Each structure stands twice: as structure tokens, then as C-alpha cells.
Amino acid sequence: MKKKLLLIFSMLFFWTILGPTNLVQAQKVYQIGTDVTYPPFEFANKNNQYVGIDIDIIKAIAKEEGFKVQIKSVGFNAAVQSMEAGQLDGVIAGMTMTPERKVKFDFSQPYFDTGIIMAVGKKSNIKSFAQLHGQKVAVKTGTAGANYANSIKNKYGFKTVTFDDSNNMYQDVITGNSVACFEDQPVMQYAIKQGTPLKIPIKPINKNSYGFAVRKGHNQELIAKFNKGLNKIKANGTYDKIKAKYLGTKNHATPKQPTEDRSVWGLLKQNKDALLGGLGETIWLTIAAIFFATIFGIIVGLLGVLPNKFSNGISTTIIYIFRGLPLLVLALFIYTGIPSLTGQKIPAFVAGIITLTFNEGAYIAAFVKGGIEAVDPGQMEAARSLGLPFSKAMRRVILPQGIKIMIPSFINQFIITLKDTSILSVIGILELTQTGKIIIARNLEGFKVWAIIAIIYLIIITLLTWLSNWVQRRTQS
């Protein structure tokens, strides 16, 4: 009897301790990709929290259906490619449900109806597509607006210029480089209400709908949950509240965002936490990448100076491949290409480190090899004539001299690596450049924000340059 009671109490004890934990663990967490530079559907507020119609809808649905979402800000193109590679479970980013996209993705039921509009400068006289003849028109890559503009450009005789984010597209029209841009109606209306000096001369055309997307044939349970949850939030009024929060209602104008100090100092003060976070990510990326790239580069460089043709060939091939590949292409290949082949996810930060390790490591290998070869060949001959084996002669005689030659190049490569981290924003790493894009999406103060970020980069690079000069003087004295 005592044994039975002990067993019952033990089971109750473990159920009490482990039961709630298991329930929490059982709650599915989905990785959802988005743009976060597409207000009012997705953007970061002044507290650097992701908000917008899309973000609020997916979170409301997740709450209704009992699952969790982790929002990944990777940009529209990177989000779509990452989902195709299996890195993300779904994408909600104001994605128009076109026939071409339906071939590759499974969509939810429509959650927002939209249309495409053309926007021009405040003082522009353009009122029709015919007036675009012989002019340049700005579009955002991967959007329905871009697809529509490209489908009619031959008919009306204009050229398109493609940008990765809305702010740069708007600025191209504002500065007069392009005479117009094509954008989704609610996005353009929101931008104009926030102070963007553009106007809309035509009515919306090519009306379509937004949908939540998953990879073709995958995550059907998530699509079902989304559709079920969407019907629930429409029925209980949550959906209408979300729309009204960002777009207003028929009887009320779009709610104005809280007034912000748009001076450089004001922007710096309001966004200091986000900028410091982005700077911290940039520094961590740089340190980690330099550490692994240095190891990789030294090994490959030493292979290039061994008295062995096979080793020399491996070294030359690695340097040729990774110096020849553009960093952007390499980053996308590692983050989206490899997972699509292997089925294994690679975190964005890890993909960024691997990218920089191979790219920067190839350059380090080249100047390690060059530094060793710059040492007078007579030094090796003299060491060998004294009876030293190749490895010992290399370690004791050649490398100490070669390192003095290499040090300035090492420091310069550190600086280049720091700058190259900005390219990794394409795979969604929230470093300094990506942070700037997110801030600009909210306030559209592109010039001022980029000026702040440029100054931050210049300060760090200046400090590294001083360090380079100091080390160089020390090693040469």
C-alpha cells in the first residue's frame, strides 16, 4: 500500500513539475519572415518594436490559435528566398497573391485588398502613363508595383530603376532622378500622410489582395491555423481595430504618429538604443569574423608556400574562388542556397560569420602568402644550410620577418571586414546598416539617418586606423 501511495505521489509530483513545462514546450513556435521597411504593414516604432497591420494580424491570429511566432526582419526578397530554402516557416510582408507566386507558394485566404498607384513629385504635371515616355520610373524590387511597371514600360516607352527599399525609391522621385514610382495604394498613402512630398495623380489600378505565404506543399497546418484565426479576429472585431489603428476609418482620418524631433540630435537621441544595438552586432560580427578568417587565412596562406605542388594548388584555388565571388552572392548562397540543398537551417548570424570567414580569409591568405614570399629566399637557404628542417626554419626564421610585413595588411583587413558587415543586412542580420533601414522606414529621414550611421562608421574606422599606424610604428622600431 505504501509503495502504491509513493508511486501516486511521485507521479503527481512529476506531473506538477513537468506538466506545465511540457505544455509550454508543446506550443509551436513558427519563424515568420517579413520586411519591416513597409509601413503601415510592417515597420519598427520608436521603441524598436515591430508593429504594423501585418505584424498585429499574425500576432492576433497566433494568440487565438495557441501558437507563437518569432518575427524575422530580413527584407522582402531575403524573406521569400529564405522560405523557399526552408529557413522560414512563412512570410507575411504585404505579399500580393499573383499567379506566378501561387506556383511556388501556398497562400492563405486574402487578408487585405489593395491596388497599385503611381506617385509623382509635388510639382509634377504628370497625370497619365503616356507622359512617362522617355523618362525613368522608380520601383521596388520584388513588389507587385515593380511587376506592373515592367509589364507596361515597353508600351509607354519608359525605363525602370530598381531599389531594395521604399525610402530610396521615394527619394529618387523627390530628387528628380525619376519622374514617378509605382507602389501599393495604402503604403503610398501612409507615406504621404507622414510627410513624404509626393502626390497620387491616378486612381488605383490592377487591384489584388495580400496573403500569408508558406512554401509549396509545406506547413499546411500553419496555413489552416492562419485562415481559422483570421476568421475569428474578423468576427470578434480585432481585425477592424487593427486596420483602424493604422489606416483610420471611413469617418476618421489615418491616426497621426506621435510627433518626433526630426533634427539630427533628436533622431540620435530617440534611436540611440537601436543604433547601439546595431553597432554592437556589427562589432561582434567583425570580431568573430576576423578571428575565424585569420585562422582560415593563415592555414590557406601557409599551404601556398609549402614545397608541395598539390598544397600550392589548393591554396591558389581557394584564394581564387573566394576572392572572385561577390560578398553579396556568397552570403545569399550560404544562407539560402545551401539550406535548400541540405534541408538544414543556418542561422543568419552563423551564415554571416561563414561568409566573412571565407571572403576575408581568402584576402588574408593572399597577403600571408605574399608576406612570406617577400622574405629574401636566401634566408631559407641559410637556415637549411645550418641543418634546420623546413618547418623549424619557417617558424624561427621566415615567419618572424614575414609577420612584420603582414601586420599593416592585417589591420587594413580588419577595417575592410567592419565595412563589409553592412552587406550582411541582405540576409536580415540586424547590424548597423539594417538598423538604419528600419529607422528610416518609420520616419523617412533617409539623409539624416544615413549621415548619423556614416559618422559612426567613420569614428570606428578612424580609431582602427590610429591603431594600425601605432602597431606599424611599434613593429618597425
UniProtKB/TrEMBL annotation:
GO MF annotation list: ligand-gated monoatomic ion channel activity
Gene Ontology biological-process entries: amino acid transport
Membrane topology listed for this record: Multi-pass membrane protein
Keyword S-adenosyl-L-methionine: no
Domain ABC transmembrane type-1 stretches: 279-468
A Pfam family the protein falls into: BPD_transp_1
Classification via InterPro entries: AA_ABC_transptr_permease_3TM, ArtM/GltK/GlnP/TcyL/YhdX-like, Iontro_rcpt_C, MetI-like, MetI-like_sf, Solute-binding_3/MltF_N
Any one GO cellular component localisation term in the record: ATP-binding cassette (ABC) transporter complex
Keywords assigned by UniProt, alphabetized: Cell membrane, Membrane, Signal, Transmembrane, Transmembrane helix, Transport
This protein's record includes keyword Mitochondrion: no
Subcellular location field: Cell membrane
TM spans (from-to): 283-306, 318-338, 449-471
Segment forming the signal sequence: 1-26
Family listed: Belongs to the binding-protein-dependent transport system permease family.
Protein name: Glutamine ABC transporter substrate-binding protein
